[in-house]
Amino acid sequence: MTSQYVPGWVDDKQAVDDIVATCVDADISSTPIGSTPIEDLPDHVYLWDLARKATGALLPPRNQGKVGSCVAFGTARAIEYTMCSEIVAGESEQYIPLATEPIYGGARVEVGGGSIRGDGAIGANAAAWVRDWGVLGREEYLGIDLREYSESRCREYGSKGVPLELEQIAKIHPVRAVTRVRNWLDAKKALANGYGIAMCSSQGFTMTRDANGVAMAAGTWQHCMCLCGYATITGREYGRIDNSWGASSHTGPVGPGSPGPEGFYASSSTIEAMLRSGDCWIFSNVEGFPQRKISWII
After folding, report:
1. Model's pTM, two decimal places?
2. What is the overall mean pLDDT for the chain?
């Protein structure tokens, strides 16, 4: 990994265990998702197709910049795919991209107690924040402009926490349930049911995709990314991962399903190993943003 790309996942198994103890389900095996029959799983899942249906386009590439806020970006991306799935399923909501700065600050300060020095966050703490507080769309709130990502605001919230007025607004949009995904089969079940996965691990990859859109496992990234689909390529299963290092960080063909340029496919065995970190999450029952009835008559 070149120095221009910044990870930011903090591996803290005790902190993860503490959050898991507060979850109704420790992992998806005890949820309705976990009972999905293997034979009912489709041969491929492209959550970005749900985004196309819900919004008319792919979710845009995102760039965390020089802040180690990948956990917030991976969490927001997974929830955004869940929101698109809910909209396609018929829920009367509109899609609004999620602000990552409150997720980062909330995970580090309100949930984590400010114990992390330097950049970074724990995936479980971000899951707890969106469950116990909520999410905010990229809009302006009480004079606080979250419409565009701000590295300086991300660092500010990561140091001081989320402003009280934003905490109160976030609680209008909680994620009702969070739970872990810990193996490839359960990941396929989650994806097939319309859930993106915030996947924290230390696994790194090459920055160049091969002819099939695959990046090879290489090096170490203390990083969080979003698992958002799977496909069979040349007889083997691969998962599609969205990264948060911008549209041009990875190069080469994008692979099956024509996903965006910000990610890559990885082998199922590599993803299985990544999921063993124990800090990989799905998000359900998002209290999203009600569909507005707009009158264009002036």
Report:
1. 0.95
2. 94
